[in-house]
Write a structure and sequence with these properties.
Elements: E1 5-10, H1 25-40, E2 44-49, H2 52-55, H3 59-63, H4 69-93, E3 98-102, E4 111-112, H5 115-123, E5 127-131, H6 141-151, E6 156-161, E7 166-167, E8 179-180, E9 182-184, H7 185-191, H8 198-206, E10 211-215, H9 221-226, E11 233-236
Parallel strand pairs: 1-2, 1-6, 2-5, 3-4, 3-5, 6-10, 9-11
Antiparallel strand pairs: 7-8, 10-11
């Protein structure tokens, strides 16, 4: 196993399937089964989930100033809590002990984030789901994922998307786009890669945290990655 402790970042949109919003049960089932395979292999897995599948419709209202940006960001954090609870339910149906840690206190739902407690859970073979982002507005769940990965001393951050890596241009718009198997953080800045925000890349670079962008919807990719197979695009220091 190449990576023992890892943090998996899932976008809220990845939970929608082909729907415009909400949670697609089959997709959550698939992800839960993939996570179980990782746990059975002895991997220590933490997860950060976005909230775009629930909060997506409010982004336009923020742009139109109907909703204040700060208030909107807190609403987005609450959306990640909903997704975290849903994913915990699916994981525990498969017999996986799962703990939710939140950056915003809500004691009836989840335990507050604590680095030492999170690492303790991971060492005991439990999956940890981090919700509510960083607990602060103006920071994305991508940045929260990198921050949590650094705090728990993860070997790698895996960003699950619907494409199989980073391309020279958008592969969904340009059939001649070329896939990049390895790039540096500096190159990611220069290319203005949008699959993760720039703050997340900067934080990863400063802390020497490798990030792999890969297709989470292809079964088996998660297990292949932690076994050392070259899947997706590796972003790292060079």
């Amino acid at each position: 196993m190449k990576y023992k402790r890892l943090l998996l970042k899932l976008s809220g949109e990845s939970l929608m399937g082909d729907s415009e919003f909400g949670i697609y049960s089959n997709r959550l089932t698939q992800y839960a089964e993939e996570v179980k395979e990782v746990v059975n292999m002895g991997g220590q897995l933490a997860i950060v989930i976005g909230g775009g599948n629930i909060f997506r419709g409010f982004s336009r209202r923020i742009r139109e100033n109907t909703i204040n940006r700060i208030e909107g960001d807190y609403m987005g954090m609450l959306a990640t809590v909903i997704n975290g609870i849903a994913f915990q339910s699916y994981l525990e149906k498969l017999g996986i002990c799962t703990h939710i840690q939140t950056a915003i206190r809500m004691d009836q739902i989840a335990e507050p984030f604590g680095k030492k407690k999170a690492i303790y859970h991971l060492e005991k073979g439990r999956v940890v789901i981090f919700v509510a982002g960083t607990g602060n507005p103006y920071f994305t769940t991508d940045t929260a994922a990198v921050l949590r990965a650094i705090e728990i001393k993860a070997d790698v951050l895996l960003k699950g998307t619907r494409v199989d890596g980073i391309y020279t241009t958008d592969p969904e718009k340009n059939k001649y786009a070329k896939k990049l198997n390895n790039i540096s953080f500096d190159m990611a800045y220069q290319m203005k890669i949008k699959v993760m925000d720039q703050t997340a890349f900067i934080l990863g670079n400063e802390n020497n945290l490798p990030i792999i962008i890969f297709n989470i919807n292809k079964r088996g990719n998660l297990q292949k990655l932690i076994s050392g197979e070259k899947i997706g695009t590796l972003v790292s220091k060079k």
